[in-house]
Backbone:
């Protein structure tokens, strides 16, 4: 079936060739050839040059988790400062830098990158492919993310870290009121990070539409894929807004433009619009893939498929569609006319509708299933409760007049932590417990796992629920200390204790990771008896993912025999063999009919060097080293030329007919 | 080595793990019940910004009720979801083949019913919140007093308007308003964005440079209402408070008349030591009406002694606190535009004596 389709749609004369169909049993010659073709060189060469999505995915996960730990330590310092009134542990300036870097780290350097990590690792496995559509771009995206993260921290040791809050409102962040390098580091860092996010998002979109295994029609892709796709499309639309905002700010600060400078006709409110046009969809971008993790992994432990797959996929996209029209709910207090506020308030409340679809789908899945109480399941089930609490406080803040009170108080801090920790961190940690055997070939320890869940769950609720009360008692955000006469002593002490408990929970999880890496029980290909394709290959998967390109016949390829679905069977043992160099199969966007053999790039250093030179260019801009900047730009351009140089293995240079196997 | 298959137990919930499950419902509900004691605890300490339980005027009261309704519904939904979740986790299932996989169909009625009910409740809440918005957006009658508040790093300038320019006056960090009447406040900023917020009287509004926002407040009960900057504005954001003092009409007018008077020190001889000291060290930033001190970067001190608090709400206004503030401003309010003034003991007491006349 597959080969016939290919011949019907020859895409490039030079590529016309019928892929062989066959088997590649373990230990066969074909397998050995694939391994040789796909494996990266050992040592630092392979480390710098690999374009393997699994290596890149794990790097994303490890790097962003390190940022989570850094951001967490910053949070703990903040909580020590706020544990009691009139504390003097931190000066206001130190406090302001800490809360800014905490927000910047968690929102930009942890919450999306970690999900990109999961998706990078999992997508090709979930989709039955051999890699992402643009493996080199993928490597480039990671390097830029890493360098942008380091860039944003360079001024931290000098005591001149960004200090304007992650939202960085002008004119406070403008040249008049913030003269140090603090904000320049942030502004340039954000533009740099935006490059990473954009190319990463483009990669996901193309991968979804062109790189699915034959037979994986669009209504068979896992919900995580829907979540990341939705997030990626949104990022492509809104990241330009924030990159532009930060670029304009940098120009205001360094070149003397006056986009935001009132004295010269600029508009501070413009910043808020540009920032939140990006900022709100971003909130959904950092939760929808995490919700996808739960939607895909929860059913494994409920021993039945997810209830309402189609509804969930549609709800995912509906959330983002509405989420694009609600940015003004961050600006209810800016003096906009009530009619405008009503519309944005109502839209913000409407997001509850797709969210409740998701909640009831998860609960129904548990209700109708037969729950197995393994650690990942605890995280996913606990997540459902936190999702609901975070959602409800969101409804409260969507009510315009009430938001005029709640806005800028600790109620919002409580809300956003229920959303970001509840809906991002819990699924992520659950996801690591779930996919750890796939990542490493070893199981994580169950006993420590349960401990980590309960300590995290109790610590989190103890730490963050009281923030709602602090908010209702009028405690504003971003104050470095408070007086006892305000009546906030008790709640702050409880919050601080809870935060430390939560941190201990995370620590137990990390200890579990370290111990399990060394001593965890060996995992089989499918230790949880799950349904999706990533469990069809070994744990950890080989460099080429699947020796034979799987042919997919349903949404639950590994459960087909037991689900008794009548339509054919997925096939993992016999299928397309693509062994002429690095190759993958390109399929049609909706029906996943094979269309073309895709020549995939070999490992290469160019993404690393391009990323490095672009980052150095930003260093040059930061330090006003103009010659250095020019040199970095030239070096970057050369790397790009090298990258784009037509190569034979990618069939970008004409190959004589007959050279290919026809 | 053969991969070890971890022991998975399918089917009903393992009994040993049931106590865990109880915590799912336990925690959120305990958390919500917690709210009562916490609020009471704060009540004893008197949380002056507690807008959830207190509102003293028509610009805040409908919002407070909206808050109660929304918090109540949210708590109820939390309980219902927690209940369903526990039910889903704990309910007994008939024994079956441990390798069995449930069918994909079914369960959609959960989504239909759950989302259907949520949507109806939500629609009602949208209508209710828009009604509240309409009620608090504009004052019920024409405002009795109009004043302009300008946010500065990190204090508040308050200008009382009057048709007769001679009757306009400026105070700082303290608004006096007549009880029972709406007051229109024009909001401006001199530097960065600040947020004007008197929680028990009204919600917050940003003060944005280059724009003039408006809001109205009304206090139905005489008293002092605490306000606070609600928009992060830098180093001393935490110490940017103010007071709103609502008085009956008679007291309010008496206060206005007193504030319109020039300072009593205006008639002092220019060679008075305290006077000279003030003019040398303070007048660059501070103004005293009727004297040559006309600084505009800092609070007008014409009737300093009439104010309840100092330094943007940081200290009560006592002679001791005042001198402590002048000598140690940077320790008390780090980053403040007010420097710690280096004064000898004699200078210090001379200045104190001078300032004590600013009544």
Residues:
């Amino acid at each position: 079936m597959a080969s016939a389709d290919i011949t019907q749609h020859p895409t490039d004369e030079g590529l016309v060739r019928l892929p062989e169909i066959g088997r590649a049993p373990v230990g066969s010659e074909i397998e050995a050839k694939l391994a040789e073709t796909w494996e990266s060189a050992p040592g630092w060469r392979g480390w710098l040059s690999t374009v393997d999505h699994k290596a890149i995915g794990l790097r994303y996960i490890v790097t962003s988790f390190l940022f989570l730990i850094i951001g967490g330590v910053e949070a703990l310092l903040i909580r020590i400062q706020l544990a009691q009134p009139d504390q003097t542990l931190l000066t206001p300036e130190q406090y302001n830098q800490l809360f800014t870097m905490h927000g910047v780290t968690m929102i930009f350097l942890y919450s999306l990158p970690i999900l990109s990590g999961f998706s990078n690792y999992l997508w090709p496995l979930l989709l039955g492919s051999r890699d992402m559509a643009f493996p080199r771009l993928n490597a480039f995206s990671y390097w830029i993310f890493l360098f942008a993260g380091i860039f944003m921290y360079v001024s931290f040791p000098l005591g001149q870290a960004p200090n304007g809050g992650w939202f960085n409102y002008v004119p406070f962040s403008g040249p008049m009121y913030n003269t140090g390098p603090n904000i320049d580091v942030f502004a340039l860092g954000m533009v740099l990070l935006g490059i990473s996010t954009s190319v990463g998002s483009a990669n996901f979109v193309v991968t979804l539409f062109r790189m699915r295994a034959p037979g994986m029609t669009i209504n068979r892709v896992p919900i995580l894929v829907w979540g990341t796709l939705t997030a990626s499309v949104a990022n492509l639309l809104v990241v330009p807004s924030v990159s532009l905002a930060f670029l304009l700010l940098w120009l205001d600060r360094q070149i003397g433009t006056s986009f935001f400078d009132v004295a010269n006709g600029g508009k501070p409110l413009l910043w808020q619009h540009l920032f939140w046009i990006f900022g709100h969809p971003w909130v959904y971008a950092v939760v929808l893939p995490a919700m996808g993790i739960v939607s895909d992994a929860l059913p494994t432990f409920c021993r039945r498929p997810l209830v309402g797959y189609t509804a969930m996929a549609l709800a995912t996209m509906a959330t983002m569609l509405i989420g694009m029209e609600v940015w003004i709910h961050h600006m209810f207090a800016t003096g906009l006319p009530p009619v405008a506020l009503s519309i944005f308030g109502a839209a913000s409340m409407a997001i509850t509708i797709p969210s409740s679809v998701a909640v009831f789908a998860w609960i129904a899945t548990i209700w109708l299933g037969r729950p197995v109480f393994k650690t990942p399941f605890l995280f996913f089930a606990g997540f459902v409760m936190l999702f609901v609490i975070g959602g409800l406080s969101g409804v409260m803040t969507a009510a315009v007049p009430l938001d005029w009170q709640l806005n800028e108080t600790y109620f919002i801090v409580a809300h956003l932590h229920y959303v970001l920790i509840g809906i991002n961190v819990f699924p992520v940690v659950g996801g690591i417990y779930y996919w750890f055997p796939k990542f490493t070939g070893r199981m994580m320890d169950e006993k420590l796992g349960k401990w980590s869940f309960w300590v995290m769950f109790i610590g989190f609720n103890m730490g963050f629920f009281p923030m709602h009360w602090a908010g209702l008692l009028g405690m504003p955000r971003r104050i470095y200390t408070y007086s006892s006469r305000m009546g906030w002593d008790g709640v702050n002490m409880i919050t601080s204790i809870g935060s430390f408990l939560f941190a201990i929970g995370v620590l137990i999880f990390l200890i579990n990771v370290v111990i399990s890496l060394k001593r965890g029980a060996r995992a089989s290909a499918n230790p949880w008896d799950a349904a999706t394709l990533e469990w069809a290959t070994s744990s950890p998967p080989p460099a080429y993912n699947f020796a034979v390109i799987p042919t997919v016949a349903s949404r639950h390829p590994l459960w087909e025999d037991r689900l008794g679905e009548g339509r054919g069977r997925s096939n993992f043992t016999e299928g397309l063999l693509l062994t002429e160099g690095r190759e993958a199969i390109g399929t049609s966007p909706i029906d996943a009919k094979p269309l073309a053999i895709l020549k995939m790039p070999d490992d290469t250093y160019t993404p690393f060097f391009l990323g490095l030179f672009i980052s150095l260019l930003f260093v040059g801009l930061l330090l006003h080293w103009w010659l250095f900047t020019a040199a970095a730009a030239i070096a970057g351009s050369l790397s790009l030329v090298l990258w784009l140089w037509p190569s034979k293995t990618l069939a970008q240079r004409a190959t004589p007919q007959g050279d290919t196997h026809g | 080595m053969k991969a070890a298959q971890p022991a998975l137990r399918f089917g009903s919930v393992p009994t040993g793990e049931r106590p865990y499950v109880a915590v799912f419902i336990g925690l959120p509900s305990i958390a919500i019940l917690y709210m009562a004691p916490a609020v009471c605890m704060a009540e004893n300490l008197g949380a002056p910004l507690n807008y959830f339980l207190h509102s003293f005027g028509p610009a805040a009261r409908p919002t407070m009720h909206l808050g109660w309704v929304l918090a109540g519904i949210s708590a109820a939904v939390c309980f219902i979801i927690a209940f369903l979740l526990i039910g889903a986790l704990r309910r007994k299932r008939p024994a079956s083949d441990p390798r069995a996989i449930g069918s994909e169909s079914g369960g959609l009625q959960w989504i239909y019913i759950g989302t259907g009910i949520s949507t109806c409740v939500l629609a009602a809440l949208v209508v209710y919140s828009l009604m509240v918005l309409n009620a608090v957006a504009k004052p019920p009658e024409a405002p009795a007093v109009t004043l302009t508040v300008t946010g500065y790093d990190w204090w508040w300038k308050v200008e009382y308007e009057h048709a007769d320019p001679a009757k306009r006056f400026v105070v700082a960090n303290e608004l006096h308003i007549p009880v029972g009447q709406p007051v229109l406040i024009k909001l401006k900023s001199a530097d960065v964005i600040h947020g004007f917020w008197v929680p028990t009287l009204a919600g917050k509004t940003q003060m944005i440079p280059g724009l003039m926002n408006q809001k109205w407040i009304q206090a139905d009960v005489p008293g002092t209402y605490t306000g606070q900057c609600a928009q992060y504005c830098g180093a001393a954001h935490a110490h940017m408070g103010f007071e709103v003092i609502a008085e009956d009409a008679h007291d309010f007018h008496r206060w206005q008349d007193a504030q319109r008077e020039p300072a009593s020190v205006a008639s002092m001889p220019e060679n008075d030591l305290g006077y000279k000291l003030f003019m040398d060290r303070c007048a660059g930033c501070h103004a005293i009406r009727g004297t040559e001190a006309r600084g505009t970067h800092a609070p007008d001190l014409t009737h300093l002694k009439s104010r309840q608090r100092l330094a943007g709400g940081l200290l009560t206004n006592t002679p001791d606190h005042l001198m402590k503030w002048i000598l140690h401003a940077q320790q008390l309010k780090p980053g403040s535009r007010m420097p710690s003034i280096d004064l000898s003991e004699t200078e210090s007491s001379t200045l104190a004596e001078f300032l004590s006349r600013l009544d």
In short: The first helix of chain B runs from residue 18 to 45.
